[in-house]
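Question (not urgent): is this output format expected?
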Amino acid sequence: MTGQKSTIAITGVTGKLGGTVATGLQDLVPQLRLLVRDAGRVPRLEGDVAVMEYGDAEASRKALTGVDVLFMVSAGENPDRVHQHQIFVEAAAAAGVGHIVYTSFLAAAPDATFTLARDHWYTEQHIRESGMAWTFLRDPSPHAERTYDMTGPEALSLTDMARIIGEAQGREVTYREETVEEAYASRAHYGAPAWEVDAWVSTYTAIASGELDVISDSVRALTGRSPMSMADLLGQG
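Got this back:
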C-alpha cells in the first residue's frame, strides 16, 4: 500500500485499552476508525465513528469496509464470546481487512488452566484460518515473529505482590493461600454463574501451575521503553 493512506480501526475505544491505543495513534495515523457499540459514548478523539457489535455480522462488515488494519480488543467475558469473536473475524475478512492485531492472553491454549484463556486460543485459531495477516499480543509461540507477550520486568508470586503493596502503602499486607474448595466456597455468595466462578478460581490455579511464569522483552522491542514494574506502578499514586 505504498503511497496510500492506511485506515486503522480500533474496537473498544470506550474502554481503557482501546481508548489508550486510539489516543496514542491520534497523531500517527492519517485515517482512524473508532468502532463502538454506543455512538453516545464515543470519547473525544479524532476519527470516523462506526457502530457495531461483535455478534452482528452485517453491522461489523459495514463498519470494517475500507479498513486496512484492525486492532481487536477481546469482547467482555461471557459464555458466548468465542462465537461472537468468530462472527466478527469472518466479517473482517469479508470486508477486506488485511491485518488483524488481537489482544489475546498469556499462555492461551485449548487446555489452559485459566478457563478464559481457552476463549483466546480458539479466537486465534479463527484468525489464523481467516486468510488475514495477524499479530497476537500474548506470549511466545512457534510463530514468535507475530506473537508478543506483554509482560512486566519480573515474575511475581502473590506473596511478592502482597509485600510490594504493603511497602507502597506503608502497612502490612499478607497473602493467604486457599484450597480450591475454599476458593469456590468464598465466592459462592456472589451468586455468579458456574462458568464465571470457574474463571475466577482458575486465575489462581493458573498462577499455581506455573503457566504464567513468563518474562519477555516484547514491551521494549515494540515500544523502545522498559515495562513498568508493579512497584513503579504503585509508586505513581
